[in-house]
Amino acid sequence: RGDMAFAGKYEFEGDENYDDFVKKIGLPSDKVEMGRNCKIVTEVVQNGNDFTWTQHFPGGRTTTNSFTVGKEADMETMGGKKFKATVKLEDGKLVAEFPNYRHTAEISGGKLVEVSSQVSRLVFKKQTNQPT
């Protein structure tokens, strides 16, 4: 399937195994609580194989990763660690090897589903007509 339409703004909807995941990546406890209760908005800009992936956290903090599928890029984790990764496309999913986990992202039923090492599954619903 060549369905790679990731572009859009997605609002955090729910998670599975969040606690296990944040422990595994070593997120500080204040960030864990913030992450659990906050409405993260993920904004994806896509131009062919070029992506800009931005996560907006309450309070104005953002994390942005820009990458081209198949090329090594400088990336940053939610916790602020910098690393190099090559994002690949496998079965319509974007796949990246982060330092402590494997991260996949796909569009499923109009929602952005991000899975980290199969430990945590985050689901984001697409925002509609929201002022920016």
Automatic annotation (TrEMBL):
Q: Where is the Cytosolic fatty-acid binding proteins domain?
A: 8-25
Q: In which broad location class does this protein mainly occur, judging by the first location in its UniProt entry?
A: cytoplasm
Gene Ontology molecular function: any one: lipid binding
The protein's matches in PROSITE patterns, at most eight in alphabetical order, are given as:
FABP
Q: Enumerate the UniProt keywords alphabetically.
A: Cytoplasm, Lipid-binding, Transport
Cellular component (GO) terms are: cytoplasm
Please state where this protein is localized.
Cytoplasm
**Which superkingdom is the protein from?**
Eukaryota
Family stated for the protein in its record: Belongs to the calycin superfamily. Fatty-acid binding protein (FABP) family.
Protein's recorded name: FABP6 protein
* Source organism: Trogon melanurus (Black-tailed trogon)
**Lineage from the top down?**
Eukaryota, Metazoa, Chordata, Craniata, Vertebrata
